[in-house]
């Protein structure tokens, strides 16, 4: 019971990695807040959880409703120990085709939504004298990848923001940042990914289908949060791309331009 009585807020908890995280945290004794847009899916997740679980339905891009959501959470639990910024959306389109609306929508959800919620919760953590903020980035938060220009940009932006936040926090704040970079995980992410015109891709990619199981990914995320790791890479061979880019950049460009992106 590593997270006993910790109040953990998970965004994007209506499916995939977020749903798996909700079950793992509940299993480890946490009190939960689960958020996403689809209320009925959150209800379904809640039914599988025995411990305390508050549903706060929200659209992460709606800045005004985020303020109300934070107030609801604080009124209910009086504190938030761990925020897991997990809500996100991907992309399947070439730069040359992608319409501006898609670039903006992905940045709104993955970047602005995430930092807005974080900035609203941060003052409560500072006042409380402790906290932990995890953000689910991606391997493409560290490298570029075909058909993912806006998605990779949004995840790279999260690294800049959260690394800076960690540097600004003082030891007495007792607040830790964990940046999580999964490779391909088997979830509905490719179904929900955006095409060049903003329509949903609605396919299970072959690469996604062969990805890591979401429960295993969630276990590794909990371990990283428990150990207060600054950054963690979760996946199989795909995480090698990060090391190739760092130490063998020519090899990285050779592989990443040839690997099947779907
Ligand atoms: N699967 C992978 O291979 C992979 C790899 C690296 C990183 N990631 C990251 O992992 C995170 C979770 O993705 P997943 O793979 O679990 O995909 P998923 O099954 O599609 O889950 C995405 C979650 O984000 C929520 N969401 C989307 N737009 C939202 C909005 N505007 N407001 C609030 N919630 C919103 C969705 O809920 P509603 O639709 O109900 O709002 C859903 O719960 C994402 O940040 C993704 O970038 C995934």
Automatic annotation (TrEMBL):
InterPro entries associated with the record: NAD(P)-bd_dom_sf, Sc_DH/Rdtase_CS, SDR_fam, SDR_family_member_7
PROSITE patterns assigned: ADH_SHORT
Pfam families: adh_short
Family: Belongs to the short-chain dehydrogenases/reductases (SDR) family.
Record's protein name: SDR family oxidoreductase
Natural source organism: Calothrix parietina FACHB-288
């Amino acid at each position: 019971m590593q997270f006993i009585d910790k109040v953990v807020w998970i965004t994007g908890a209506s499916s995939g990695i977020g749903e798996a995280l909700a079950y793992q945290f509940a299993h480890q004794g946490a009190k939960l807040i689960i958020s996403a847009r689809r209320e009925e899916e959150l209800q379904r997740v809640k039914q599988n959880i025995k411990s305390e679980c508050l549903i706060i339905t929200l659209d992460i891009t709606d800045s005004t409703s985020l303020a109300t959501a934070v107030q609801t959470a604080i009124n209910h639990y009086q504190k938030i120990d761990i925020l897991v910024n997990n809500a996100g959306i991907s992309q399947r389109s070439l730069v040359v085709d992608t319409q501006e609306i898609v670039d903006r929508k992905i940045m709104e959800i993955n970047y602005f939504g995430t930092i807005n919620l974080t900035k609203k919760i941060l003052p409560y953590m500072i006042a409380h004298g402790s906290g932990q903020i995890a953000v689910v980035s991606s391997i493409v938060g560290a490298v570029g990848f075909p058909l993912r220009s806006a998605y990779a940009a949004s995840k790279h932006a999260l690294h800049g923001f959260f690394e800076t936040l960690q540097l600004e926090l003082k030891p007495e704040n007792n607040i830790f940042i964990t940046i999580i970079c999964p490779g391909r995980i088997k979830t509905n992410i490719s179904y929900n990914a955006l095409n060049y015109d903003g329509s949903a891709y609605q396919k299970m990619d072959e690469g996604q289908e062969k990805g890591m199981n979401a429960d295993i990914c969630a276990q590794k995320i909990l371990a990283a949060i428990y150990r207060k790791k600054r950054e963690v890479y979760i996946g199989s061979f795909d995480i090698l791309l990060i090391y190739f880019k760092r130490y063998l950049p020519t090899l990285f460009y050779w592989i990443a331009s040839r690997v099947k992106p779907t």
